[in-house]
């Protein structure tokens, strides 16, 4: 992999480099060898009588492109072979392979094509409409956590208060329908979502397989990362251990190295891309290490090369049941991104605006995710549900449940898993998890309790009079699904959220660098300033 990456950074395949490594490439995989030999024979047969020098050039070039494609995925290989056989001449075959390897299967090449277009679009928007107003800022907004202020550019997703999240324009049900799955009618593969977030295009299965392969190739974590985690007491919160591991991963940042060497601004996105993909590939290893360390025997489970990103994460946590793997694919897909204003996404973006590398940005984002009003709510929900069961039993009546909700509110606490800063309807991330539960675990007693809460809690929160959204959010449901398949340790749940969020935050960071987005620096004011301003406004 490192050979291929070095080659790619150079702006294309280099036959000389290929020649240097040709022998090891032949030895690297039996499929590669078989196909490369068949290509040689086909070349010789078809190029019979042709110009020898040109033939050698073609051969070297074809070898080099083939190697790139093959090392990205065995599944792509069979497709390549059958398509190659259909080509009428070797020249055409080589040209086709070039198109497939650089434009179709390679995410980096796709971005390289898309970025200049998007840069132009933004430049035009700024020069033609820079002074158009998007709304008025009120004192309420300043004092209310900037609610409703439009002040961020976030390309990968958009949140509608009524409809919920759309990833590059696609709703969750649309993603479930359109994104490639591991099995027929299965849940979307998170790699497909990553491709969609980065390019705005729905990937083919071959593209997703190539990306899975690439992520597996990058999934290597140095030992000092585990040692950094081991330096913490086992009792440290899983998010603290996870965040520490991510900070230790930062030592390998390509962006930091490139910046120190003086990389020009126009190229920032390339090492950001390298870091982003490596970070996404590596966080499941760090997260599963934390899980094994705290809750199991500390044994590290290695990456399984036959599995995709979500399936692999599930098996590294020690869960090999196909339903749990499907749940993990769905879980990672729906938690990945929720536009730019939420605490974790905004933190990642803000820190990135100072040109901090993706590891630093993501570690900062995780610290925001670890707050109980944000990502930690998934832990709080399951602990709260378990406290309901401890006190009232699993077959609690709706009346008893109402009393318990009021007891929570009267104790000055929030009902975790309900309400949202933007959404004003049931979160579609909740709905799709409910559908998963109805399909796979309809009889689960805790799922039935969650269903009862759906009926009981919204009227009570509405009755309070101040809650803007009484409906359940994503966290109201995730815990009971994980609990059903044996992942019962609620304090760990936010780590799962964090792994998923790496996909959204890192995707946007690549675009931040590609578009040259500036240092984020909103204006703040004091209470004195606000009072004076308002008094003057009143007087005029
Ligand atoms: N239970 C009790 N009170 C609630 C409530 C809930 N679930 N949701 C909102 N409220 C209260 C607020 O605390 C606030 O009270 P205050 O005026 O006394 O401070 C009032 O209702 C108005 O709040 P809001 O405008 O409706 O919500 P917000 O934008 O300020 O906060 C959120 C949004 C999510 C923090 C809030 O709904 C909440 O605390 N929910 C419970 C925690 C939770 O589930 N968080 C996860 C959210 C999703 C995520 O990020 N993962």
Strand content: under 5%
CATH superfamily of the domain at 377-484: Cytochrome P450-Terp, domain 2
> Which H/E pattern describes the elements?
HHHHHHHHEEHHHHHHHHHHHHHHHHHH
- Rg for CA atoms: 26 Å
Structural class: mainly alpha
Keywords: Transferase
Family: Belongs to the citrate synthase family.
GO molecular function, one term: acyltransferase activity, acyl groups converted into alkyl on transfer
InterPro entries: Citrate_synth-like_lrg_a-sub, Citrate_synth-like_sm_a-sub, Citrate_synthase, Citrate_synthase_AS, Citrate_synthase_euk, Citrate_synthase_sf
Give structural notes:
It comes from Durio zibethinus. This is Citrate synthase. Keywords: Transferase. Belongs to the citrate synthase family. The active site is at 374, 420, 475. By secondary structure, the chain is mainly α. Among the domains are: 6-86, no CATH class; 90-126, no CATH class; 377-484, Cytochrome p450-Terp, domain 2 (Orthogonal Bundle). The protein is built from 26 helices and two strands. A two-stranded antiparallel sheet has the order 1-2. Helix 19 crosses helix 25 (493-514). The longest helix is centred in the middle third of the chain and has 27 residues, at 269-295. The radius of gyration is 26 Å and the shape is globular. Residues 1-99 have low confidence and may be disordered. The structure holds amidocarboxymethyldethia coenzyme *A. Amidocarboxymethyldethia coenzyme *A is lined by residues 342, 373-375, 377, 409, 414-421, 461, 466-469, 473-475.
